[in-house]
Structures are given as structure tokens and as C-alpha cells.
Request: fold
Amino acid sequence: MTLDKLVMAIIQDEDASYLMDVLSTKGFSITKLASTGGFLRSGNTTFICGVTDGRLPEFVEVIEKKCQSRKQIASVNAMSENESFAPQPVEVTVGGANIFILNVDQFYRI
Ligand code: 2BA
Reply:
């Protein structure tokens, strides 16, 4: 089997377990990494998965269906009226998934 693409999908922790179940049931091989978002500084999950070009649309579609975007409050350092920097609450919408798709040059399973 030729694995054409490496998919890196950054998703929310809340969706990780169910998504892994669904993808595994469909026969995709997945590695799950614990990751941290640079902006919120809170945990998220990164899936890496080698897929064939033929199954790539199905893979992305499953992620689209199973991962939801959610609103979160972030604490951002912003200048206040008295010109001091104080943490200000800011609402952000965290995407259901941020997906990178890379071409696979070589893959060895030894
Ligand atoms: P975080 O970096 O913790 O970002 C969480 C959410 O905060 C983002 O959701 C976005 O809505 C907001 N945000 C991020 N940076 C911001 C900034 N400088 N100013 C204002 N708001 C900001 P998403 O864009 O859906 O990203 C969710 C997670 O996906 C990110 O968590 C990060 O771990 C990853 N990610 C997103 N874009 C990436 C990229 N270009 N490269 C690598 N990782 C990325």
C-alpha cells in the first residue's frame, strides 16, 4: 500500500476519543499526540495519520463531522485605561480541527 499523504490534524481534547474510535473502526492507522496550543496555552490533541490519496476525502470528512468548534475565554495581556498591562478576557472560537496535509516522500514499515 502506498501512503501518499501525511495528515496532521489538531483537534480539541473533547473530540479526540470518539474520533479515534471512528477512524480506527474505518481502518485508518492513527498516532495520537498530546499537544498544547500556543495562544490558549491549554492542551489539545494532534492526530498524525498516513493515508492514501483515495481515502483522503473520507478521512477529512470524518473529522469535519466529528469535531466541533467551541467558544473559549482566553486571558490576554492588553493595555488598560491606566496604561498598565492587565489580563483581559477575550472570547475566541477554537476550530473543530486545523488540518495540515503533507506529501509523503518515503514511508518504511520495518
Ligand atoms: P491555540 O494556539 O491555543 O489557539 C486557540 C484559538 O485561539 C484559535 O483557534 C484562534 O481562534 C485563537 N487564536 C490563536 N492565535 C490567536 C492570536 N494570535 N490572536 C487572537 N486569537 C488567536 P484555531 O485557529 O482553531 O486553532 C486551534 C489550535 O490549532 C491552536 O491552538 C493551535 O494549537 C493549532 N493551530 C492553529 N493554527 C495553526 C498553525 N497555523 N500552525 C500550527 N498550529 C496551529
